[in-house]
UniProtKB/TrEMBL annotation:
<feature type="domain" description="Aspartate/ornithine carbamoyltransferase carbamoyl-P binding">
    <location>
        <begin position="5"/>
        <end position="142"/>
    </location>
</feature>
<dbReference type="Pfam" id="PF00185">
    <property type="entry name" value="OTCace"/>
</dbReference>
<keyword id="KW-0808">Transferase</keyword>
<comment type="similarity">
    <text>Belongs to the aspartate/ornithine carbamoyltransferase superfamily. OTCase family.</text>
</comment>
<dbReference type="Pfam" id="PF02729">
    <property type="entry name" value="OTCace_N"/>
</dbReference>
<dbReference type="GO" id="GO:0042450">
    <property type="term" value="P:L-arginine biosynthetic process via ornithine"/>
</dbReference>
<dbReference type="InterPro" id="IPR006132">
    <property type="entry name" value="Asp/Orn_carbamoyltranf_P-bd"/>
</dbReference>
<dbReference type="InterPro" id="IPR036901">
    <property type="entry name" value="Asp/Orn_carbamoylTrfase_sf"/>
</dbReference>
<dbReference type="InterPro" id="IPR002292">
    <property type="entry name" value="Orn/put_carbamltrans"/>
</dbReference>
<dbReference type="InterPro" id="IPR006131">
    <property type="entry name" value="Asp_carbamoyltransf_Asp/Orn-bd"/>
</dbReference>
<dbReference type="InterPro" id="IPR006130">
    <property type="entry name" value="Asp/Orn_carbamoylTrfase"/>
</dbReference>
<dbReference type="GO" id="GO:0019240">
    <property type="term" value="P:citrulline biosynthetic process"/>
</dbReference>
<dbReference type="GO" id="GO:0016597">
    <property type="term" value="F:amino acid binding"/>
</dbReference>
<protein>
    <recommendedName>
        <fullName>Ornithine carbamoyltransferase</fullName>
        <ecNumber>2.1.3.3</ecNumber>
    </recommendedName>
</protein>
<dbReference type="GO" id="GO:0004585">
    <property type="term" value="F:ornithine carbamoyltransferase activity"/>
</dbReference>
<feature type="domain" description="Aspartate/ornithine carbamoyltransferase Asp/Orn-binding">
    <location>
        <begin position="149"/>
        <end position="301"/>
    </location>
</feature>
Length: 306
């Protein structure tokens, strides 16, 4: 498999995604066999947004592969303000063997990839969260033998996480339902792209604004209703979003057996505490762990192509 960057879900083919899922599971099962995969390599990690799981999973994952991670936090300001994105990319390429970037704008990701001479990994932007989606499908692959038989529903705010989930589901042939309040659905261009991909794979893609019309599902996924950096007040959206709260009643109505959340969770808002902590349904911490293994698979693949 040849990939030069890991920027967006819809830039990956079905075989590439499946190969990454399989490799993540292999590394997770035998991490010692990959302990020198990044020996002598350094990875620069740009974080315009603070993070727990993304920072820790990349840092420790890189160390498990024998590499070195350098954290570049908010002290350098937003990309493109203190200095051009192109200059940032070219400078980091002088020192680092790869760049991981968690940024506000997808334009920053594409700018880094355009001007860097080393691989660039999108660790989150406003349009995509491909590392999260890959980890999510690794988690699903651990729970279900055939992903194409899984019915997955995302319930809540249409955002970068739902975009990536929707796109990967469409590419892999997974039936996907997106349930969002009116006015909080996906970008129309992103949804049209996912529809086209779903037609190619033969999967079913449904968008509904009725929380009671989700239908039969195997897995329910949710995320915070107010994304990091958004100054929207909960009181202003409560009436629109509360019918979309993921709880035990929704699990029973849909027949779903598992619930996912990319965290941090705002308990009693998008998901109840009882469901988030329910060991029968909740696999949110397995999902969080798989961020590391999925990202390690991306790094191993990128460096194998050099």
């Amino acid at each position: 498999m040849t990939i030069s960057h890991f920027l967006a879900d819809d830039l990956q083919s079905k075989s590439q995604i499946l190969d990454l899922i399989a490799l993540a599971k292999t590394i997770k099962g035998s991490p010692a066999e990959y302990s020198q995969a990044l020996a002598g390599k350094s990875v620069a990690m740009i974080f315009e947004k603070p993070s727990l799981r993304t920072h820790v999973s990349f840092d420790i994952g890189i160390a498990k592969l024998g590499g070195h991670a350098l954290y570049l936090g908010q002290q350098n300001g937003k990309l493109g303000e203190r200095e051009r994105v192109s200059d940032y990319a070219k400078n980091l390429s002088c020192y680092a063997d790869a760049i991981v970037a968690r940024v506000f704008s997808h334009q920053s990701i594409t700018g880094l990839a355009e001007h860097a001479s080393v691989p660039v990994i999108n660790a989150l932007c406003d349009l995509y969260h491909p590392c999260q989606a890959l980890a999510d499908f690794v988690t699903l692959a651990e729970q279900f033998d055939d992903l194409t038989q899984v019915k997955l529903a995302y319930v809540g705010d249409g955002n970068n996480v739902s975009n990536s989930l929707m796109l990967v589901a469409a590419i892999l042939g997974v039936d996907f339902t997106l349930a969002c309040p009116e006015g909080y659905g996906p970008n129309s261009e992103m949804f049209a792209n996912a529809q086209a991909l779903a037609e190619q794979s033969g999967s079913k893609l449904v968008l509904t604004h009725d929380a009671s019309a989700i239908g039969a599902q195997d897995v329910i996924y949710t995320d915070t209703w107010v994304s990091m950096g958004d100054d929207t007040k909960f009181a202003d959206i409560e009436a629109s979003f509360m019918p979309f709260q993921v709880n035990h009643a929704m699990m029973e109505t849909t027949g779903a057996t598992k619930v996912l959340h990319c965290q941090p969770a705002h308990l009693e808002h998008e998901i109840t505490t009882a469901l988030f902590d329910d060991e029968k349904y909740s696999i949110v911490f397995e999902q969080a762990e798989n961020r590391m293994w999925a990202q390690m698979a991306v790094l191993v693949t990128l460096f194998a192509n050099q």
